[in-house]
Design a protein that fits this description.
about 950 residues; alpha/beta; Rossmann fold; 20-stranded parallel sheet; five-stranded parallel sheet; 32 strands; coiled coil; Apaf_helical; leucine-rich repeat; Disease resistance protein
Amino acid sequence: MADLAGGAAGEIYKDGKRVATFAISNIRYLKDLNRNYNKLKQEAMKLKDMRKDLEIRRFKTKSCIRDWIARAWIIERQVVDLETKYNNEKKHRWKLFSLANLSKEMEVKCQEVCSHWDVGLNKKNKADMELPKRVQRIQTLKLEEKDKKIRRIGIWGMVGTGKTTVLQNLNNHEKVDQMFDMVIYVTVSKEWGDVSKEWGAKRVQVAILRRLILDVDDNADVNEAASIISAELKGKKCLILLDNVQDCIDLNRIMGIHENPDSKVVLVSEYDDPNNCVMNADELVKVEPLSPPEDWNMFRQKVGDYIDNPLIAPLARGVVKECYGLPMLIDRLAITFKKKGKNEVLWRDGLERLKAWDIVKLDGMDEVLVRLQICYEDLKDDEQKVCFLYGALYPEESEIHVDYLLECWKAGGFIGSASDFRRARCSGHRVLNELLKVSLLEKSDKSKCVKMNNLFRKMALRISSQSTNSKFLVKPLEELEDSPTKEEWEHASRISLMKSRLSTLPETLNCSRLLTLLLPSDMDLTSIPIWFFKSMSVLQVLDLHGTGIKSLPSSLPFLINLKVLYLDSCSELKEIPSGVEKLERLEVLDIRKTKLNLLQIGSLVRLKCLRLSLCNFDTANSSEAQVSRFDLLEELNIDFGSWEEGWDKILDPVIKGIVKLKNLTYLRFCFPKVDCLGLFVQQCLVWGKGSLTFHFAIGCHNSAFVQEQILESIDHPGHNILKLVNGDVVDPGIREVLMETNALGLIDHKGVSALSDFGIENMNKIFNCLIEGCSKIKTIIDGDGISEAVLQWLENLHITDVPNLEKIWQGPVQAGSLSQLTTVTLSKCPNLKMIFSKGMIQELVQLKHLRVEECDEIEEIIMESENTPLENQALPKLETLILFDLPKLKSICAKDSLEWPSLREVKITMCLMLESLPFNEVNATKLRSIEGQQSWWEALEWKDDAIEQRLQPLCILN
């Protein structure tokens, strides 16, 4: 206290006038110092939460929201600076003036935080209410006169999204009528068979001939009819609309379309694969479900504005929610509920039955059900159908990990009779790909996960409810107040009570038909009755992961047909019963993050897939023997958590046990140092045979979400992944592994100045590369001394938080290098000045996506001085260009004669010095949108007003 008083006295003595002023105006700030600090932290947390919420859909929203996000980032950094200043200043409590000023600064900043939060909320609400002009855009933009190269347009999307409606609108659209001399609309009937064959092709020709009012002899062959159609259309601009296309269709064979260069074709299909000959389109357009404001507006327009009644509105919104944005469903339900008028009781009854999917008793739903079920019935075989139905066991909106899904499919015998896991996974991915193609499953934003549209999920549950052999019992969290009845348990073949919060389970049951039991993520479930499993002798899949159980009951050995057992994240689980050796068919076991040890499961010697943590090893016993006894293992995943004392002593024995596994086809493991990896490579029985898929890390770390997203992929399940983490030297011991690597992550490495330091000749098989937090890297590839093409197969390059990076490529670029590169992302590289060095841009013939953000020194994206001569056809495949927070950016490319033949989307945010765009009256013919700030757009300089007028309709501006 004396020190504080003395310090204060010294300050006061220095300047009496300041003290007087301080006492009058700043005493309040000094008094409110802690309060202002706490309030600032609280409000900043609210702002951060909103920013994260909006950031999830950062590039799916209007640019004004992305601008708000960018400003929020800046404010948050400023708040962090103030927090640091507060923690430093409070140690010097006698500095009254400094503390008062800091308190005032925090109060002002808190007001800015609150204001920005309000602005964000307002923009979010406003954006939610705006209707994107999706239909108009599809109707007109793709068919404009200038799009000479776009002749075949494919429209796709899940059933019920309105694809046929779009086609019908094109058929009846006044502007389209003005653009073409003739519009021909044909719905391809399934009764016509395969239109790639003779009979099917003739059916399409008959439909076209009728539209043209032409008579052709029934005995005329396809070629003769095609000549007649082609002659009739010669010199005419014709639009051909084909709905419900299921098979490859050769329009030149059917109507000689190549002889009519002014004709265009629009096809509708449920297929989304651009390489699929069904579409074979120059341009693909996906019809998405309606957004929340769109679906409400459509429903309200069809029913009437009386649904704004405060008693009806909540019920009406509940109905709309059950439509999942599908116009077909909205239309049918609007007709049904309009009949209920203003009767609140009828609305409530209808909504309750809709939620229960009691379609038989709900008028107007039969047509929807038939349309949906057609998607299911059109699947090629029973294998695909049963795999699709299984996905309905997972909760609404849940992300289903592909590995787990395929393991459950295998356990159920859905994907063939393959006994080994590698073949089974290949079969599973084939089925998965088919389900993704027809949108019955969708890719999730999360790595290696898929999800099921809620409407299809309800359809699948209804189909299973009608089955006599495979009844599902699925209870979502909000519907499960009590445990299912005894009858429900005993009649079901598959039960899913995920996240149910059940604290108790029935003591005894007769579940002789139960094949699948999913009870995960229920921490309230702390015990399982002793005889719970006694009657479940045919059970194949048991998922208890994330529950609060401490032990497994003595009835577990009765599960003699169990093939899959998930116990991961049962953090209190430490006991299993005797007799588990009776689980002779168990193939998959996951005990990560449990208190079990390998000795307790040592009798399960028939396991083929085992996932565990390093903490599951018993350090008092031979770790080598603990692993090697599972000699049938095909897949082994050992997770490393935080290091604990004694673990380093068991690593060598663990590795010595792994190398003896002669059937191993997949290994996920973290080697703390290169020496351990070398031991594995030298002694592993399967290394060098080309049969092992690996996911290795050298140097332990916690995998970030973004890293996994980049390095792991559903599309490449067999990729070998190598992460080099926290290294400080280039060890030649990794080169043999590097030569087999397909996805490379270089993370927080401090011992390299270039990626090529590891030996560029060892990277010929790399497809994906992530470089993050490497403080000494100045260039990615040092081309000096390289005499042949390198990184020919690299497809994705992501570089983030590399503070000293100056350029991607140093020195000469050999022809063929980077020839398959499709995606480049550059983020937080403050010293990067050049993206495409001399000779590099000519090799990027496949580059489709370029994103550059928070690179402070970038002044030009394509520097003509470094790329002379710069051909007009440079970057011929580039589709998206995203530029974010580049304060010194002045130009994308000074040369405005580049053709940009594939560019579709440009997004520019916080690039305030960018004064021009590299477009003219004729280039970038496929450009569909330019997103940016209104003030930035208005400040752009144009060589010709015609260019601005051409681009203005494409703009999405704040």
